[in-house]
Amino acid sequence: MKILIVEDKLEHLQVCLPTLKHQNSVEIVNSYKKGEILALSHQFDFILMSESLCDEKRIKAMRSKGFLAPIVVLTFEMINHKSVWFLDHGIDDIFSYHMDSHLMISRMNALMRRLNLEYESVYKLGEILFEPQSGLLKNELYTLSLTKKETDLMKYLYLNQNIALSKEKLRRVIWGNKPCEENNIEVYISFLRKKLKKLDRNVKIETKRNIGYMLTNISEGVMRRM
Prior knowledge:
Elements: E1 2-6, H1 17-23, E2 25-29, H2 32-41, E3 46-50, H3 56-64, E4 71-75, H4 81-87, E5 93-96, H5 101-118, E6 123-125, E7 128-131, E8 136-138, E9 143-145, H6 148-159, H7 167-175, H8 184-199, E10 203-208, E11 212-217, E12 224-225
Parallel strand pairs: 1-2, 1-3, 3-4, 4-5
Antiparallel strand pairs: 6-7, 6-12, 7-8, 8-9, 10-11
């Protein structure tokens, strides 16, 4: 991988940097501005950015200028209000400076695989083809249209297939900071269930008691992408 590290205190990188440099191509800059210029002028697979140099305005600016690769915040405190805020405002993940460097690389690879899957244009769920870009669910006999919210919800369920997702997680991902009625998740899950049932009865959105919802394919166990 080609990694850009935006960090103004190099001593914070002493745990992870040797392994990152050994297995990857690494560039290090000590300011956000230098990082932005380098990120937009070169092809990087990943950005690791110090918590102290990262904010919503800067992340939105990079995304608006066409930088699509994962951006991960480096922090000493994994569980705090600011970390939660970062995840809700465009950051792909948060790593601790003390994280084992091999685990860090594995998580980076996993995140890249997930994002690559997200960019696929057609997903296959049993007998169903799901086209996120056009908002369509179809099989050999029927083609059903999805609303924007249904499409976003279906896509997130697919990317996390066979994983139980809480209502709160789904609300944050699909609605973000916009107002969301208490029962909106249940309503849209119901809409999707009816459409999935018409196309393939083996593809279901299961309710996991006290946890949330999970997309499954009874006939295959695991869904596959085309």
